[in-house]
Amino acid sequence: MEQKEQHIDLSVVVPLYNEEESLPELVAWIDRVARQEQLRYEVIMIDDGSTDDSWAVVEKLATKYDSVRGISFGRNYGKSAALYCGFEAARGEVVVTMDADLQDSPDEIPALRRMILEEGYDLVSGWKKKRYDPIGKRWPSKFFNATARLASGIKLHDFNCGLKAYRKRVIKSIEVYGEMHRFIPILAKQAGFKRIGEKVVEHHARKYGYSKFGLERMVKGYLDLISVMFMSHFGRSPMYLFGSLGTVMFLLGGGTTVWVIAAKLWKQAHGLPLRAVTEQPLFYLAILAVVLGVQLFLAGFLGELINRNATDRNKYLIDKTL
Predict the structure, then answer these.
(1) In the chain, where are the structural domains located?
(2) Arithmetic mean of pLDDT, 143-159
(3) Which of 79, 87, 106, 226 has the fewest beta carbons closer than 10 A?
């Protein structure tokens, strides 16, 4: 007879990269908090291709704590890949993500969990209102978060905070890829989970090691934001965007071309001074608009063909059935 899988109250997903010093303290802290709350829990640690002894530490912790599970990548794939695998493995009714550098406090977990279970949120994001990062990271982050709020309509102060809590069905309904971990609230909203909340959380100064993220993440962040917003509005019907733009440019370029040629013929018929069509810059701009219009239309058409063959083209969030 098959044994029934044990119920898990809480899954803590921890992506890590070269954090060997902080891991024992972090797991002990999570264990203490979970025991105080009498929670059946698991800690899923995803080693994102660390070059230090992080994986050896994870193995020792898995021996010491029955609740610790580990996943190791052969090379560094990034935080989004680590979260994706952690979400796939998570079994808890509430899933909490946090960084491995001890800057996120496990003491916040009970309150985050209560907001999910008792207040009905699908996702709760931490807000590091008082940060202990250098000003060179704080101000770009403020600007980035303001842009993300404006573009998505989600009123969060800190999209990139690693400390978040999710209802289980949220993480099983979204796919985190590339560098999209910054936009998980937007991905959740696109999937139909609109009850997104925020909680001010305590932020600690880094105790061990150094930050693994540089200023290049800001550039990547804005590019990813454009991708997310495009996918949210036109992901299932790219023809609406490319086809519309292509049609407008084609008609504008074609109409301008006809007007330039017609104007030359009219002047020629009335004996007025004229220039050859090929000597007029407007003619070449009109031809360029026609070519770009055709290309944009074909891009939308190809996008529709790709969508038609996508395996998840009819994947929808079903909330209730009768």
Answers:
(1) 10-234, 238-308
(2) 82
(3) 226
